[in-house]
């Protein structure tokens, strides 16, 4: 069963239970109050009737013909009977079998003793009368007889039956109205859920994560569900976009890696084939082939190492987090460069302690120095300082610099500004440097005016 039908059924059930409880309570109250209401009504009729015959004698009262006489065996109308001290009736508006109902002597005695009397009579089987009797004063001011007002107790059942009929009719109408209202209200309340289902189905069919539910300003559960669902779709869309970018980057990475590996593999295969096919080749030719194989093998080894480093960075592999003084690290890198014959100039570095992996940071510094040596000209300037909670490492050269249109791509994997300027490079060094900087919570940037300038910013420790 659909939720909307269940909610409507639940509303109708609750309404029915409420109406049933209300009807039982109202019926009980009516059953308890109707007899008392009938008694009070008869008391008023008896009092008014006694007042209308006050001061008259029995002959004068008996001479008055009733306007109408009712049969108390079938009628529930109020009747009046006037009797004398002995209970003999001489005026009556109601009869049973053609005679006025007999008033018990006990009722008459009680009236003369206390002034009034209430009783329930059963003049014939199946007929029950409720009466109220009061005294009737004659011309001398004394009580001459009794005025009795009565009515069939069937009147109570008529009243209760009418009340029950009203309750049944009103209950059915109320139940129908409540069911209709519950159906309409539940439909309106569940409309966002229906939209959610339709949107989900459409997304499943089309794969369009850009779809959104209409905004719901209400602060209820449906409003929060709408907001949460739209937020989830936005997160899924962002994740899908990032995944697509990652897959595209991996595809390019594999394609570029295959391209870069093809050249050394071809050289190694050709030279190996030469050595196998030409066992009688000269010593110089054989040495040249072996040298080419060794150089290409070293090139492949560096390329595979760089690719492994990038793969670990993509996998967010954990790095060491120990205090590293960049001033000492840069000093060691400068000494290594000097031993390699590179023209390096270093300003007096300030102590700059960062948290990270020393070997990775050494590789970062050396990548920038090696890049300046390959693509620059003249001295390589290295500067280390602190600025606003960051260690700032700057490496610059005096070469041709970086064209402005290449600044955004210089850190891309396998990207080379000019392959002829560094035919042995694979274009992975700066990409590795960027990943190392990011893994340490820092950034790296490039500028190309008057030589290439690379600036690394790493957060200082504590």
Provide a descriptive summary of the structure in words.
This protein is of the alpha+beta class and 462 residues long. It contains ten helices and 14 strands. The chain has helices at residues 3-52, 58-62, 105-114, 154-189, 191-206, 221-277, 283-314, 326-339, 358-375, 429-439, and strands at residues 70-71, 79-84, 89-92, 94-95, 116-124, 127-137, 143-152, 322-325, 344-346, 353-356, 380-387, 390-396, 443-447, 453-459. A hairpin with a 4-residue loop joins strand 2 (79-84) and strand 3. The longest helix is centred in the middle third of the chain and has 57 residues, at 221-277.
Task: Offer a concise description of the structure.
The protein has ten helices and 14 strands. It is an alpha+beta fold and 462 residues long. It folds into three domains: 3-161, Beta-Lactamase (2-Layer Sandwich), CATH 3.30.450.20; 222-311, Helix Hairpins (Orthogonal Bundle), CATH 1.10.287; 318-459, Histidine kinase-like ATPase, C-terminal domain (Heat Shock Protein 90).
